[in-house]
Structure formats: C-alpha cells, structure tokens
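[09:14] KT: can someone run the structure on this one? pasting the chain below
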Amino acid sequence: MKMIFFRSIRGEDAIDTTEQTSTSVHQPLAAHGNPVLRYLDRLAPGSRRTQGVALDRIAALVSGDEATALDLPWHRLDQHQTERIRSAVALQYAPTTANRMLAALRGVLKEAWQLGLMDADTYHRAAAVQSVPWFISPRGRVLSHEEIEALFAACDRDGTPAGVRDAALLTVLFAAGLRRSEAVALDVRDYHVPSGALTVRATRDSRERVVYAAGGAARALERWIEIRGTNAGPLFVPINRGQKILLREQRMADQSVHRMLQKRGQQAGVGSFSSQDLRRSFISGLLDEGVDIATVQRLAGHCSVLTTQRYDRRDETSRRAIARMREVPMRTTGSAPADPE
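[09:31] RB: done, structure tokens below
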C-alpha cells in the first residue's frame, strides 16, 4: 500500500508521499497494540463513534480510499504529511469539524508513540500540527423560556411512563446542560436523591463533574426514578409501544434522544432545535444571569474557558440595553411640531 494525498478536493492527480513497501508491513496491528483502538477506548461512547468516523475519513484521504483507520500505519506519518492532512481537512470541512479530526489525529499519534511505534522526535513534530482558526459564532439557537415551558408541558400531557422519562431527560439536557452522550451514559447510581447531586462520568476528557438538581429539576428526576425503579443500570432506558420499561442493560441510543426531542417539539409547537441547543440555552442562561465564566466552564465540562466564551452574549445584550437608554426625541411622521414657547 502507498500512502498518498490528493492535490485538492477536486480529485486531481495524487502525490506519492512514501516508498512502496511490502504488504505485510501494513497489515492491521493486534488490538492491544493498535493506536487507534487504544485512543478510541479512552473516549466516551458518543465521542468514540464521532472520532472513529473522523479517523476513517483521514485514513481514506491519506490512502486514496484504500485503507480504514484500523489498517493505516499511523506511525509512519511525519510532520510533512500531517501538515498536508491539516491543509486537506481545512479545505473540505468546517473549522470545528476539521479541528475535531485533527484532535483525533494527535490522539492516535500519541498512542503510537507511547506504544513505541514512533520515536519521540518524529511524534512531537508530527503532532505539532496547528488547529484551524475560526471566528464564527456557534451554530444553533437558544430556546426561550416559553419554549422550554411548552416542552415540559408536552411531556406532562402525555401521562405515560414515556412522558415522565422524557421530562427527566429534558431536565438533564437543559437544567444540567449535559451533552446527549453524557445523558444516555448516566446510571441510576449517578443521581443522589437526598442531595440532588448528579455525577457525570462519561465526559470527553474522562474527568468526572458534579451538577445539582433542585426544585422542578429534582422532582422530574425523582418522579422518573419512582416509575423506573432503583434497580442498578442505565438511568434512561427504552420504553416499548406498550409502555413497558425495558430494564435490561440497554441504554437509550443517542438517536433515540434526538427522535424524542423532535416528537416533543412538534407536540409543543416549538421550532426545530437539538440537544445541543438545550445545552446552549443552559450555558447562555447562566452567563446572562451573571454567573462567572469560570464556574460556567466547570458546570458545562468545557476543557477551556475559550469554548465557554463562545456562548457569552452579554456584550450584545449590554449594547442593546444602552441603545434603549439612548432614546432619541424623534416625532412621529406627519405629526405637528410642538408650539414654541
């Protein structure tokens, strides 16, 4: 196999970046020594799927669609080649997607180095590839208070176990700001009823964080646990059409949560939104209420405060407030001017 790169996304002639080697050199490594599997095993389930796809895309780019992530010899990549990868993904993908792919690339290179497949100098040079700069606001939207109320009201009107479960799911997505992958990874043991502490374990950086439920949020979770039962296992489980709660070691899938949100949104008359929009509403709401950004960063599970700053709308809000304060004495068109004194 040759490792190749395309000149551009238009499918021009490929450039050969390595010498021809024997096929045996490029056979997939054993599972315990494969840097891709080791990297993916360190991730949360949702991130594992996303980054697995990212690595497959890079492998297809590098090999001319001849290899998947599992058979590509990542340890043979050098600084020149990783720079070529960066240029290619920067052309083909949005900055956030490109940077996620580059993060996966760095992660696999680090595993290859730790396995002794790369020397330190080659690894550090290859992994020094810089992120793609971007200056756009995060996509999506912030839901209004009325829309949030309408979504919970739709769940309350259901009157079935699914309605109770969905209200609890909305609670952890909106009131606790969890990612969808984090919500479906919760276990019953992760919620401590007396204190309202919810421990989030399946995080992107493998660091636990604790958020708290109070008031209506606590009631929504407690009501679901009363119906579900306190049996060990996933907190959020599937419910069949007969409204039977399936208490097996089976979690709700990410896609099932997406379908639930679509269904409740239609019932509530709420425009299109995603689980990320609920998380965005959580973060933006805290910032708008004056919670310091470092605290919001910890609650949201962001690795960097720079990520949290993307959700900060306070400058815009302040500018609008100032504009309202600077009232201009402009008379209505056609009205008579005031009599001079």
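[09:33] KT: thanks! The first helix runs from residue 35 to 41.
[09:34] RB: yep, looked fine to me
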